User: Fold this.
Amino acid sequence: MKLLSIWLGKSISLISRVLNLGNGSTWPGHLALKINKHFISSLLKNSKTQIILIAGTNGKTTTSLLIKTILEHNKKSTIHNSSGANLLNGIASSLVLQSSLKGKLKADYAIFEVDENAFSKVLLEMDPQYIVLLNLFRDQLDRYGEVANVAKKWATALQEEPTINLILNADDPQIAYIGQQLFNHKKTEYFGLQQKGLDQPEHAADSTYCPRCGTKLSYKNVYYSHLGNWECSHCGLKQPQTAIERFTYMPLEGLYNTYNTLAAVLLCKSLGLSEKQIEEGLQAFKPAFGRQEKLNYLGKQLEFFLVKNPTGFNQTIQTIKHLKARTILLALNDRYADGTDVSWIWDVDFEKLADFADNIIITGDRAYDMGIRLKYSQKEFKIKNLKFKIELDLNSAVQTALELTSPTETLYILPTYTAMLDIRKIVSGKKIL
Amino acid sequence: MNYKLTLGWLYPDLMSTYGDRGNIIILQKRCEWRGIKAEIDPITVGANDQQLKNVDFILMGGAEDRQQEIVGKDLETGKDKILHELIEKGIPGLYICGAYQFLGKYYKEADGTIINGLGIFDVYTENPGPNHPRLIGNMVVDSSVIVSEAEQSIPQETASSSIVKVRTLRNDEILLGFENHGGRTYLGKEVKPFAKVIKGFGNNGQDGTEGAIYKNSIGTYLHGPILAKNPGLADYLIQTAINIKYNKYINLDPLDDSLEEEARNVIASRLKLQL
Assistant:
């Protein structure tokens, strides 16, 4: 049954790639699981591959890729579930494609990014040695439910697995509290920042109340959203001791990527790599598609920043401000993978973007909704003199934005997921799966 | 005359899901762009009673269950009574999703647990359990009912004056937004529905009603946020707030809402409706 799953899965994947049907990345796994419900566990049971799971609202793909790059640079073989295929079928697919025809896994490490809601199910199918929990932000409530409930489910699932090494974000009260409840876990390590931050949480902050007793938390420093050096003055719960707060080399811009990098570094240290080996690995890092990915098109430099939720978007605005962005293309879609509800853009601080951007082009299925949001981010209202322009057609939007970008500057593209795939197709001439 | 409104935003750090704060941004800008002063006053856990008593408008958004629990405890300290008085006095307000349910009599969870509400709206909400899907999607409703409410609330002595005119909601009587709720709300006799469902589910997916209106307080499942694509409703709330505070109906200078028109048409044509 296991071998049948693998053969059929591999064939399906080949056929779908040859015919360019797209989405080849989850079908093989879908099929493998149809044939054998426990395909994942039966394949992993007999392998020596060590399993690393990465979960959290933001940064899963980047953190997985950071770990993969460091490990491969240090001559370890890895497999991972690419292209954000982070449900059971995506994980099964990566196993189908990356195991031999005899059903053997040869990799030293399997790195799986896991969807918030799939986490408990995935844990039932495998025994990971390491789990990294990055953060929990309000994302799409229609799909993920409430932040506090997700944290509770994770803690319950982990209660049964005391031998797993946990790498947790100390600065996120919800994530830290998961570790603080798991008394039986022998090895739990925390990453976090120690530097000057804000005094108060920003508006998009979600979990600024104590996860144990519900009192408003006090912060010495807030880094972004609800991440910071926190404690509860009522019940005394506070940020756990961190094992890492900084590193010698940061491959990506933005505080959120500092967290991703610290998580990856701490994990690799636990695996026994030296700081030097890790740093060299990080220097070889190339971003995942759409995540600070740089491309050239028609002689101009472009950089993609995938945007998915208020916290990530606010961080992106900070980052591109720091990079002295002048021309920006915003692309808002509302297809399933983007989230069908676009109201989250009102939790993004576009007032800050309006402060520094000279040219803003808006496109996507819900371009007008983005236009309304920007209209209200202006201090003075002059419809004839708006600082932004709406171009419904993606192609013309890209062209217009490029024309406004001088040869010495970069066009910053901030798209939601499906808009990113479409724009990337225009500028690279390729489809990605 | 220089008008000034204090826009009270209840529990911004606890009850604000789905961009609810957009409503307060929109109201403030639409006031300021017409020379009406508008100050946003965030009122959260521990705020004093006087702060709440001073507001001319109230926004309360949706929340996750745990947050709602914290809010419940804070209101019990006496703010619940003040809120009730403000609503009875006609202070206009928008109570979205979780806040709307919370102003009702009770919320019955899927397992039968009853969470008491503030009992200001004569409505109750029940969650039918995990076998019933959440009610999610773009939504179109007809709110012409609130125009007649506005007519009723005009003070008699000014109603006959030539400068006073009831603002109708133009095509904005048709409101567009997005809903996402597990609970089903049922209306009692003391409240009127806020609107009639044209597309979507509304209060309970069965009786064709959406939201509830009591005095000038609107409870609704529409977010998006609700005022983003419904500028007419935003202006109606501003006029009502001024009417209550200054006992005077004013006409608002028109603003260019062409982006809103376009955004409305995108959704309408997807739903095969003509506005």
